[in-house]
Design brief:
Order of helices and strands: HEHHEHHHH
Strand content: under 5%
Number of domains: 1
Pfam family, one: AHH
Number of strands: 2
Largest sheet: 2 strands, antiparallel
Number of helices: 7
Strand order of the largest sheet: 1-2
InterPro entries: AHH_dom_containing
């Protein structure tokens, strides 16, 4: 039987509310961004844990499992962070596992914990178990974000181009376009009108869970 694919819902609204009053956040300064699930629904399904986690009350759409990532190549180039495009199914010699496969690997490390939580009492005990499961998985979300920040996992096939010292956007607007050897703006798109920045954006942006 195919394992359950956890439903993704209202997560975009949730994370947008969380940063709504943060005047310094890139999304409030003209940067096109997308909400990314750190523990992906596909990764949970690959780990065959979707049905179990739903029964245990796990919510994949909490802020603790979300991060906003740039959608435009110019923004990812400028901010020195990974681009969010596509379905994250790329791998290479340095990254032998796709993003979803890496999620599966991380979840396998706590499968015994999840098994032990199944059928743990009722009433108030059920709620305590739900909170324990949620907290344990939220810790895994933090690990996945760290892997993204360190480029240990790929979100796109061109992810390495956005590492510090790499070519960045290479003058491209799309992932499939042929790049120049370097970014024509030397990875500082502050004066690039096509980038759409409304104010100064950090060139060494720090990704945070729930932001």
């Amino acid at each position: 039987m195919t394992d359950l694919l956890l439903e993704k819902k209202q997560y975009r609204q949730r994370i947008e509310r969380a940063v709504k009053n943060d005047d310094s956040h890139p999304i409030n300064n003209g940067v096109k961004m997308q909400a990314h699930h750190l523990l992906s629904a596909k990764g949970v399904q690959l780990a065959s844990l979707g049905n179990d986690l739903k029964k245990l009350g796990y919510d994949i759409n909490v802020l603790e499992n979300l991060v906003l990532l740039p959608y435009s190549l110019q923004a990812a180039c400028h901010m020195n962070v990974q681009l969010h495009r596509g379905d994250h199914r790329d791998s290479d010699a340095d990254h032998p596992f796709t993003y979803h496969e890496r999620v599966k690997i991380e979840l396998a490390k706590i499968e015994q914990f999840i098994d032990a939580c199944k059928g743990c009492g009722s009433g108030s005990e059920t709620e305590r178990t739900r909170k324990r499961v949620q907290a344990k998985l939220d810790q895994k979300s933090k690990i996945l974000l760290l892997l993204i920040k360190k480029y240990k996992v790929k979100l796109t096939r061109i992810s390495k181009d956005f590492e510090a010292g790499a070519r960045g956007c290479g003058g491209r607007n799309g992932v499939s376009e042929s790049p120049l050897d370097t970014c024509p703006y030397h990875r500082d798109h502050s004066d690039d009108q096509s980038a759409g920045f409304k104010s100064a954006i950090s060139r060494n942006y720090k990704l945070q869970v729930g932001r």
